[in-house]
Amino acid sequence: MEGSSDVVRNIDRKSSIEAEPRTLGIDQIQYAREAALYVLRTRSVEEAMNVFMEVRVQLLCHVQS
Q1: What distance, in Å, lies between the first and last C-alpha atoms of the chain?
Q2: Dihedral, CA atoms, 58, 62, 63, 64, nearest 10 degrees?
Q3: Which of 38, 33, 65, 39 is closest to 52 using CA atoms?
Q4: Tens digit of pLDDT per residue, the chain (65 long)?
C-alpha cells in the first residue's frame, strides 16, 4: 500500500478554475467598449471590420498558445 500512496502524492492536480478562460474586469470591459466606439467613429466600415478581425485573430492565437 505504501507504493500507492507515493503515486497519489505525485499526481499533479490542477483545479478546474485554472483551466477556465480568464474574464475581464468591469474597467477592462469599459475600456474595450470605448476603444471599439472610437474605431467605429474614426474608420470606415471596411477598416473597422479589418481592425476587429485582426484583434480577434490575435486573441484566438493567444488563447490557443
Answers
A1: 40
A2: 100
A3: 39
A4: 555 555 555 566 667 777 777 788 999 999 999 999 999 999 999 999 999 999 888 877 876 76
What are the extents of the domains in the chain? 23-65
Give the span between the Cα atoms of 23 and 29, in whole angstroms.
10
* Cβ atoms 40, 48 nearer than 8 A: yes
* Four-residue CA torsion sign, 39, 45, 49, 50: negative
pLDDT single digits (tens) 42-58: 999 999 999 999 988 88
